[in-house]
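#dry-run=false #mode=assembly
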Amino acid sequence: MARYSLHAVGTDRPGIVAKVTGVLAEAGCNLEDSRMAILSGQFAIMLVVETPDSMTAIGLEESFSAVQAEYDLLIVLRPLVTQEETVDLGETLSVSIHGGDRLGIVAAVTEAIASLGGNIVDLTTHKIPSVNGASYVLLLSVESGPQTGEQRMREELDIVARRLGVTCVVHSGTSDLL
Amino acid sequence: MTIRPVLSLAELHLGRPCLALNEIDEVALELAQDLIDTMRSSPACVGLAAPQIGIDLRAFALDCSSHPKTTTCHGELVIFNPVLALTGGALVAREGCMSVPDLTGDVRRSETVEISGTGVDGSSMHFVSSGFEARAIQHECDHLDGLLFLDRLSGPEALHQRRVYR
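#status=ok
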């Protein structure tokens, strides 16, 4: 058995997911985790798949040729190596940034998070056009890293937000086991 | 003391409501003790429902007394045949579940609840709860109806992978 991450990108059309996952099922691949998104009519999906012993990476790529041509998809396959390492992830934080659109918001915020050892695990941005000037929303889920707590992250992002003239809210995204 | 294995998503009889107990007999009392013992074996766990240990009866154990988010608290409880009324407010918070390892989800739940049922001594129970304890009660009652927090999510974006220390 081998595991791969499979990435498919193209113009959104009904039936893409059915076709892509149909190829995988036909090839005997087990679909594990997946995530898809559509932005401005562009479709992207990332899937983690486990392939049968008899399936080579080249064979799997070739099995997509018909779907790739039919839907004009870019398909990328990457082998996955299981990592078993001890990592202190710190706290899970939710960060929301919003205000007037301006150049460099995402770069400045993510740079601040990276400088504190934080790891971004989810990110969504939206630009909202308006006659009075566009607004911007940035939502992040962040693992703070072992050296940085919620308070430290909030202080650092507050500085960045003030410099950018946007609002920043940081709150705990830690789950409760019920 | 009996610590029972907690069934995972793949093992639960999902979508099937549990049966009401006809009486609080020795079997019911043994179930109550197993729920408490199993819940206690996981320090972070504040509640456990009977189907999670493979018993399809309407009962759950609860103890939110040591959780930092707790406001209203009725201490350690086992409730048989609970009847729940959602009485107001709505809050979204992130939940995990012993039966759903590796995933958490943002779930909107009533801020206050009114619950009635039968206690381990066979007497009727009735109380009002709010905040974190109310959330835990709703989570456990869902188990008795064959539902998981996964069934309460607003959409895929509300599901999160619990990153664990390996």
